[in-house]
Design brief:
This protein has 469 residues and is α/β, with parallel strands linked by helices. 36% of the residues lie in helices and 13% in strands. It folds into 3 domains: 2-122, no CATH class; 128-201, Alpha-Beta Plaits (2-Layer Sandwich); 205-465, 3-Layer(aba) Sandwich (Rossmann fold), CATH 3.40.50. α1 packs across α3 (33-45), α4 (47-56) packs across α6 and α15 crosses α16. Bound molecules: S-adenosylmethionine (SAM). InterPro entries: MeTrfase_RsmB-F_NOP2_cat, MeTrfase_RsmB-F_NOP2_dom, NSUN5_7_fdxn-like, NSUN5_RCM1_N, RCMT, SAM-dependent_MTases_sf.
Length: 469
């Protein structure tokens, strides 16, 4: 039962605003820390529903042994949503079990009232900013078209409207082609289009990197996704490349690599070559990769921009005992090494670096260090100008960290709570000698410009420029 007391105490400390979830969890006894963290996070996800069930069942009024709301929350969580209460028999467990039937009944009634077909749909997955982030659905053009998807959603009763005011409304995104917006409460887990890979659930900001990289849809295209799992950006790149050329997708973690392989297979990405390796060990002069021209780098980061998930706190838990600052410094150092390694590929002329972090140290700080590195000296690489990087997206990089306002304008930021996305950061390095703005103009995005698809003559063997059509 001690484990439940610790978890309840953690919830009380969070309520009393005594620190962040991560900070408070770090103070728990190491023995049960991971397990307690999981219970706390899961209970927080379902807090609204569990509170209502506990109140409707009059649990706290009838059972004095259950001494606090938090204790009731964690115990009822395990009773209703896990494998039962994991503690030996005792008066507190007995008190909860006496109300088992009533608690289950109230839970089922609430589920019906909310129209939920699974427990997950009852989760309140983050802070209140998440309520203003639509459920983004990217139509996977490797397997279907927007028209086909729209017909499908119409048959499910959806029509064009404001998805934040109506559960039956959807809208097309104004910035990202093939992206649809739905109400945040809609679940697509059972949707046949989701199950068959025709649609992919991907936050809007996370669609920016592939768009900014905008590789050619051509048989000779050679692209690397250096840090690919679970594979959302990989499948997006593959779709933009119209499944042509070759897209090498590196993932160093074996388990995540399995997910990546499953994801690209399900999404019908036939031009992807998943590789279970550390990108840093890849020789840029290896004949397989020496002709690569585009690299996407979306490396591990603090995840501090993610507001609609609590789980990332758990993933990071126990990974590193150092202070938050030290952790960020380590991440920033690793991110810089990744960028510098990407710059060593002899033919690379476009590198997109992105994070889902809101910390300047992982974003503008890393960019500044990359620009001052040996790899960038003599102007070998510079930041692509604003008109190549989502030109009319209003939120740009933080000027105070960078050396010039132009550099800040080259960068894209998304602010959770203000941009209807998770917190995100996108940058794009281009090889100075080989870029010409005119060549790239009009392909960086549709924001504020007429959508265009530039076709090059087949005889030029350059393929089709893709990305923002
Ligand atoms: C932020 S996630 C990438 C998310 C992915 N781009 C997507 O959109 O689905 C970072 C991934 O990079 C992997 N990774 C970290 N360092 C790596 C390295 N040196 N080489 C290859 N993969 C790496 C991590 O295991 C993790 O799966």
């Amino acid at each position: 039962m001690n484990f439940y007391f610790e978890a309840a105490k953690t919830l009380d400390r969070l309520d009393a605003k005594q620190g962040s979830i991560k900070g408070i969890i770090a103070t728990l006894p190491e023995k049960d820390r991971k397990r307690s963290a999981a219970l706390v996070i899961e209970t927080l996800k379902f807090k609204a529903v569990l509170s209502e069930v506990i109140s409707k069942a009059d649990l706290l009024k009838e059972e004095r042994k259950v001494s606090s709301v938090s204790l009731a929350l964690v115990l009822v969580h395990d009773l209703l949503l896990a494998r039962g209460i994991q503690a030996g028999d005792g008066p507190i467990k007995q008190a909860i079990l006496r109300h088992k039937t009533r608690l289950h009944g109230e839970f089922q009634k609430l589920k019906i009232k909310k129209g939920a077909t699974s427990n997950e749909q009852l989760a309140n997955v983050g802070d209140e900013r998440a309520a203003n982030i639509p459920r983004y659905v990217r139509v996977n053009s490797c397997l279907t078209t927007v028209d086909e998807a729209v017909k499908h959603f119409a048959s499910r009763g959806f029509s064009v409207g404001d998805p934040l005011s109506s559960k039956k409304a959807y809208a097309k995104d104004e910035h990202v082609p093939n992206l649809l917006l739905f109400s945040p409460s809609i679940s697509f887990q059972d949707d046949p289009f989701y199950q068959s890979g025709k649609i992919i659930l991907q936050d809007k900001a996370s669609c920016f990197p592939a768009l900014v990289l905008s590789p050619l849809a051509a048989d000779e295209s050679l692209v690397i996704d250096a840090t690919a799992a679970p594979g959302n950006k990989t499948s997006h790149l593959s779709a933009l490349m119209q499944n042509k050329g070759k897209l090498f997708a590196f993932e160093k973690d074996r388990k995540r690599f399995t997910t990546l392989k499953m994801m690209v297979a399900k999404a019908g990405c036939t031009n992807v070559r998943p590789i279970n390796s550390d990108f840093l060990t890849v020789d840029p002069l290896d004949l397989q990769f020496a002709q690569v021209t585009h690299i996407l780098l979306d490396p591990s980061c603090s995840g501090s921009g993610i507001v609609n998930r609590l789980d990332h706190l758990l993933e990071k838990e126990d990974e590193d005992d150092s202070s938050e600052d030290e952790r960020l410094e380590k991440l920033a150092a690793f991110q810089l090494v990744m960028i510098k390694h990407a710059m060593r590929f002899p033919k690379v002329n476009r590198i997109v670096y992105s994070t889902c972090s809101v910390h300047a140290i992982e974003n503008e700080g890393v960019i500044k260090n990359a620009l001052n590195s040996d790899e960038c000296r003599d102007g070998r690489f510079r930041l692509a100008p604003q008109n190549e990087v989502l030109p009319s997206w209003p939120r740009r990089g933080q000027l105070n960290v960078l050396d010039s306002p132009g550099d800040a304008c080259s960068l894209v930021r998304c602010s959770p709570g203000e941009d209807a996305t998770n917190g995100f950061f996108v940058s794009c390095f281009v090889k100075a000698a080989e870029t010409s703005v005119s060549k790239r103009k009009a392909i960086a995005e549709t924001v504020g410009s007429t959508p265009k698809r530039k076709k090059r003559k087949k005889s030029q063997k350059q393929g089709t420029t893709v990305g923002l059509t």
